[in-house]
Amino acid sequence: MEKIRIETTQNVYIEYELASVGDRILATIIDSIIVWSYVIIWVVILINILDNNAFSGREDILITIVFLGALLPYLLYDLVSEIFMNGQTIGKKQRNIKVIRTDGNQPTIGNYLLRWLLRPIDMVFYGGLAVVVISANGRGQRLGDIAAGTTVIKVRNNLTVEKSLTIPDIEKMYVPTYLQVTLLNDKDINIIREVLRVYKEQKDDNIVAKLAEKIRKVLQAGNEQANNVKFLKTIIKDYTYLAEQAE
Questions:
Q1: Which residues on adjacent β-strands are paired with residue 16?
Q2: What contacts 61, CB < 8 A, 6 or more positions away?
């Protein structure tokens, strides 16, 4: 099981399990089935339209419709999906894998665009080049990932940042402990949640302690002798409550 170690903006290192070559191939197969199914359905519809002579003498319009209706979705499927599905396509979502940046930041449209532009090269020899590069570099990167500074990891769940901030058991009369949590943002809170997830799996006290120390310095609050896990959970709860109140 290969892993990658990424430093977050809070100067905390988090290890992610890299997506296996098998998962990436299966995700690609699923996406290909979806795209080609759409193209076939679109062509069948056009054939039926042609049978009715709807475009007799207007072949230029037909060519435009074929191009816009079939070719563009085929070409842009991966790019558009990753931009609007937080680094995932339908295939990636089914295999619980996603694209992230290797510097810990959220991928930008430019990152997704660059890895998409190099995808045709990676697919040389029916994707054989991508498999070789991914297997060789040890960071789960094909050529497009290397150029874009991204990689593909295995995710435990598919929560977005917004959903991950939802805590349904916050009492209506809840009183926040640290009002200064408003100095943080959604990205900081998501990092805290990710660190707590890693801690739950690996029982790594060091990663929790380091993040708690960083948060205490930023907020100038908290007892350094207090339980770090409890402190971070309180930060999440306070932030969520105040964010809901602001709405």
A1: 4
A2: 55
How far is residue 115's CA from residue 83's CA, in Å, rounded to a whole number? 12
pTM over 0.70: no
Beta-carbon count within 10 A of 158 CB: 13
| Residue type, position 59, single letter | E
The answer to whether 97 and 154 have CB atoms below 8 angstroms apart is: yes
Query: For the chain, how far is it from start to end, CA to CA, in angstroms?
Result: 42
DSSP 123: T
pLDDT in tens, the chain (247 residues): 688 878 766 566 777 889 999 999 999 999 999 999 998 888 888 777 777 765 666 666 766 777 788 888 889 999 999 999 989 999 999 999 999 998 877 899 999 999 999 999 999 988 899 999 999 988 999 999 999 999 999 986 433 334 444 444 555 567 888 889 889 988 889 889 888 888 887 777 888 888 999 999 888 887 776 789 999 999 999 988 888 777 6
Contact 182, 146 (CB under 8 A): no
